[in-house]
Amino acid sequence: MKSISKDQLTDPEHLEIINTESHHNHELVMDKTGVIRWKPNKEVCDSLKDRNFNDVIVEFLIRGLDKNCEEYRKMYRDIGYSLDGYWEIFYWEVNNPISNQYIPNEK
């Protein structure tokens, strides 16, 4: 994986994510197929390796954490989710009907 700068992004959806979530400094990488992703956190990936991901999501929901919560979003960044997929999950109103209510943490 190759590190890339946020300044290199041109896709409008990627820019929407970066401009909205300017409060964190999670690194971006480009994988060998050219997909732009959040840089995976090995410890988080290892901790989820033997778990059903749907169960993890249910745990968030039981705790009252929805897609607009930082902890929920951070997990997706930490597992190295692609920016395209991240936008679909968190910014596309079809998958997150309350996406317009997201208020990022301040720096």
Q: Can you walk me through this structure?
A:
- The model has no long low-confidence stretch (mean pLDDT 94).
- The radius of gyration is 14 Å and the shape is globular.
- The two termini are 27 Å apart.
- It contains five helices and three strands.
- It has a three-stranded antiparallel beta sheet with strand order 1-2-3.
- It has helices spanning 12-20, 42-48, 53-62, 70-78, 83-90, and strands at residues 2-4, 28-30, 36-38.
- A hairpin with a 5-residue loop joins strand 2 and strand 3 (36-38).
- With 107 residues, it is mainly alpha-helical.
- It has one domain (2-101).
From the spread of the alpha carbons, the general shape counts as globular
Q: What's the end-to-end separation, in Å?
A: 27 Å
What does the radius of gyration come to?
14 Å
How many separate domains? 1
Number of helices: 5
Content of β-strand: 5-15%
- On the 0 to 100 scale, the average pLDDT is 94
Bin the helical content: 40-55%
Class from helix and strand fractions: mainly alpha
Q: Give me the count of strands.
A: 3
Ranges where pLDDT stays below 50 over 5 or more residues in a row are none
SSE string, helix = H, strand = E? Answer: EHEEHHHH
